[in-house]
Amino acid sequence: MPLPSGCSINPAPLDESEDSEPLIENDAVPPQCCSARLNLAFLMFFGFSVVYGLRVNLSVAMVAMVNTTDTESAQNSSVISACPRPAGSENTSDAFLQPVGIPQYPWDSETQGWLLGAFFFGYLFTQIPGGYLSGHYGGSIFLGSGVLGTAALTMLTPLAAKMGIYWLFALRALEGFGEGVTFPAMMAMWARWAPPLERSRLMTLSGSGCNFGAFVALPLTGYICQTLGWPAVFYLCGGAGCLWAVFWFAFVSNDPRTHRRISKEERDYIINSIGPQGTGHGWSVPVLPMLLSVPLWTIIITQMCSNWSYYTLLTSLPTYMNDIMHFDIKSNGFLSALPYLGAWLFSMLSGVAADRLIERKVFSITVVRKLFTLIGLLSAAAFLVAVSYAGCSHILTVTFLTLSTTIGGVTASGVYMNQIDIAPRYAGLLLGITNTFGTIPGVMAPIATGYFTEDRTLAGWRKVFWIAAGINVAGAVVFTIFGTGEIQPWAITEEDGAEAEKDRSRSNST
Q1: Rounded-to-integer distance, Cα 343 and Cα 429, Å
Q2: CA-CA-CA-CA torsion sign (42, 221, 398, 411)
Q3: DSSP label of 29
Q4: What is the pLDDT of residues 123-157, one digit of tens each?
Q5: What is the C-alpha to C-alpha distance for residues 333 and 57, in angstroms, rounded to an integer?
Q6: What is the pLDDT of residues 15-38, one digit of tens each?
Q7: Longest alpha-carbon distance in the chain
Q8: Taking phi first (over 0 means left), then psi (-120 to 50 degrees means alpha), and beta for anything else, what does residue 150 get?
Q9: How far apart are CA 179 and CA 58, in angstroms?
Q10: pTM > 0.85: yes or no
Q11: Is 196 helix (H, G, I), strand (E, B) or coil?
């Protein structure tokens, strides 16, 4: 079975282009409704909702954890508000009062930036090992254990904060270390579970849990902080992750061949449509060809560029809403979450649209991936620039931020699933590699934001938005020039070639 483009289902010669490959007949496809592959997508969706809830809860809780009065006194300077407060809130203070007995800490802007970026220091180190091991053993145990471990550690956050900033930094880094395996494990599982013509919709459905999790966690965190105190945020989010892990280990299998409740029709359809690329890659991988692969480096660079703006908003938007826009923590949480509601909806719709364009041969996989990446990155950049000039207009600021992240969500059907196009068998490992580099902005963006916004001025935040927009544009240009959706020669094994030769012989005999 050749799969030169990563989307072939029926046999085709290895030298044919991706656009000339025949598609499977519709009546041979088992329905998605209530199928094992759709159930897997929904479980992943809720899992990544929890994952992002665990990741972003500190962003909002930080507003409640920090005693801004002490911080300003420590700086021995008076902070002049960059913008007037919303109507009806002129007499309120930025200091956020907590229930009696809940501690607050005098962390300055730079310290907060380091704490928000700490997660990604640990996240960097388990991406590649997680992808490699998931590709060999299967991803279910790694995805489940990653979420469970991170959830358990999250519940220790109040204790670590009480012990000091170094303990909290180490705990957040350790959480990132545990969570780093989750996305490579997801990609490794879909390499075995997702029929090529359903990849976009299944993967965007499962991955959209990230945006949904941010949308739910940001306002919910604000509400919990105001009613129960900030420590409750970490206890509840951690408990939710532990509960999800119970369902994951009870109902999920690495492979359709070992799933206990899958129908024979669906199992045969998945196995036959993916072919030999749906098996594990073993211990040996083509390391040198990967390192020299232009399409792989294109994904790496583009994801780094896209992630810079995404992580800037994910970690620092609540601070912007508090320091510049002066929203109270409940409004802050909701308005910070609003962009991710749009991104969640657009990412799922883009998955359906991408699969339709490929299935009906309107565009090739390469064109589809480039189109969705270009639209997402350039639109997000344009609205980030608009935010930088919205000044103190609360309506324009919220509108532009929402549009930037919403339209940016369509990149979920572009560069963010390109690994499985160019090398399905090694998709988990490739995502580990690309996500390792893609995590560097998660470390640097909060620190850079803290540096530029130390004086809490609009000019400082304008630099933050302009830098993010410029990096987005650079990523769009790189992917448009060098991106591809065709399977790479180093990803085709002897088994694939033998299968292709057998299919060619069978085709000629008929």
Answers
A1: 26
A2: negative
A3: S
A4: 888 888 888 888 778 888 999 999 999 999 999 99
A5: 10
A6: 434 433 334 444 466 666 678 888
A7: 86
A8: alpha
A9: 15
A10: no
A11: helix
